[in-house]
Amino acid sequence: MEVTSAAINVNDLVIDRVNDIRQIFQALKSGRTTRTPMQRLPRHMRRRAMSHNIKRMPRRWRNFALAATKKAKHAAKAPSRFQRRRRRFAGGDDPTLLRTHVWHAKRYHMALTYGVKLPRKCFQKVQRNCIRKTAQGASIVDNTYFAVYTVETTPESEPSITNLLNTAAGKVLKFNQSRAQHVDLHSESLSLGPVVIRKPTPTSFEFVVHPTAANAFEALFTDVAKPQRSRAHGRARLYGPKALSTIVSAFNLTKTADENMFNDVLDGAVIVGSVWFSLNLNLPGQKPVPVTLTILSTRPHTQIDLSVPSEHFKAVWIRLVHSQCRVLGLDDEWNIRTYLGKFTYPDDAPEAVASKDVLKEETTALETKHYRRPTNRRVNYAALSPENPFDFNWEKLESEGGSELVPVKIVPLTRGVPKRFTFLYSEVDSSAPESMEVDDPPAAPSPPKVKKTFDTDENGVIEISEAPGFPKLVSMDRLFEMEPRKVLSRGMKKRRKRKAAAESPVVPEPVKLQIPQGTVIGRIIRGLRWSSPQGNHLGLGYCLRTEVDKILAEKDGIVLFRNPESRHYRQAKLIVCDRSARF
Length: 583
Hints:
The chain has an 11-stranded mixed β-sheet with strand order 8-4-7-6-5-10-11-12-9-3-13, sandwiched between helices. The chain has a 6-stranded antiparallel β-barrel with strand order 14-21-18-15-22-23. α7 crosses α13 (330-339). The longest helix has 18 residues, at 355-372. Among the domains are: 40-70, no CATH class; 87-340, 2-Layer Sandwich (Gyrase A, domain 2), CATH 3.30.1360.120; 379-433 and 514-581, Aminomethyltransferase beta-barrel domains (Elongation Factor Tu (Ef-tu), domain 3), CATH 2.40.30. The model has no long low-confidence stretch (mean pLDDT 84). The protein is built from 18 helices and 23 strands. This is Ribonucleases P/MRP protein subunit POP1. It comes from Panagrellus redivivus.
């Protein structure tokens, strides 16, 4: 049988398939490495090629590098340095940032509060200076984050809007002769907070509302009209007896030829109630800036709102700051309002629309801060009171007390300063009277510890004596240890501890209270460490109405308070505040 065999010339085959063989080896090589085409270059060529620019690769590598670059996740060109470093707030379009954000961020701790980045606390200790400036001069705070609404009226809808406002305010509101109203509006059982209302034109209303009550305010006008929110103006609030004179001197305000009521103010006219004026402020190198100045209250606690167009607000702000206006952060403003005997919305209003959400965030932050501390550095709140020291629990207090809460003010009669979350008591168990002491008794000095040493008597018998300066006693077993003690690793100790806990679970014993307990009748929401016209070491809070009536009638207004971390009860004078004028 004849067999035909085919012969293959290897040299010819390799020459014909040289490109295919090269691609096979290249594919095998690519599959075994994670290096990119840029990383396969020699070291002296890598610096220029690492910019991922195909034109900087060698010509024979460009096709391969282009295919690999298209598969890359970051094939898109990165934004330029100018684009990455631009300021979001340069145009003022970001509603979460103030126009004065840069100015404040250089001097204050910024925090996201009420949905806006607000200055909370200054880098320096300025609390006393802020109070001094407010009491004797002028201070300023940026309130641009407040929501401003405009409601257009018609002859048919104006009576219904007026009745709605009178019902929400609980009194008749008048807007004749440039009158403004600073009232606490209510929607059913919820508080919308202090709202500034004015009529800029005969057919429109303007409302300045706290941002946490914005949605509830819009729902209030659902059946009447649709409020339009405006962000075209920045707002600043000035406190202090020299607030008006500071504005006049900073912008060189003088009398005008037209019939402007502000001419009478410059002549020294007495202002009664809240009034608003339309003015033109003079800025260097610019046209007169139209602003709205609203005087909310006069001496002794002057408050003025200044509404400025957004594009000029920063210039007006810096001009006032350079005119000796002390800038306030959010914490400073809270202290100022406490100094003036006023509550703060919504943090100090249990019936506020967003009170639960705001207090929940505060409680979570305080608890997180507490549990971050080492165990041996924490305050043992459970041994002082069964109540939560980081939550007010208004609903529980009202349900157990059986009556509503009324705003009160306390002035300590002895040492002790009320703080936020302080407890109010009508009476305390008198079984341990030492808990009522004002000061802790001084600790008696303890004598130095005497060490035991060895002495030898005449007969050579060793005796133990007490004399300082000699080493302590050591047991005989420790002196003659032949084998080194076994040292357990940290992991082995943890495993043994978990095993022992699983085999014999330890039932925690109930915490024994270390101080006598009393009936909680209220809580303090603001405390002032300094003296004020309202009283020394003032405290503002809420108390049950039935207990307030009983304390005023039977105990001459004397109530007990205790700070959450304190063991002592202090006496204070209880005064009832007007709910309609608390803000």
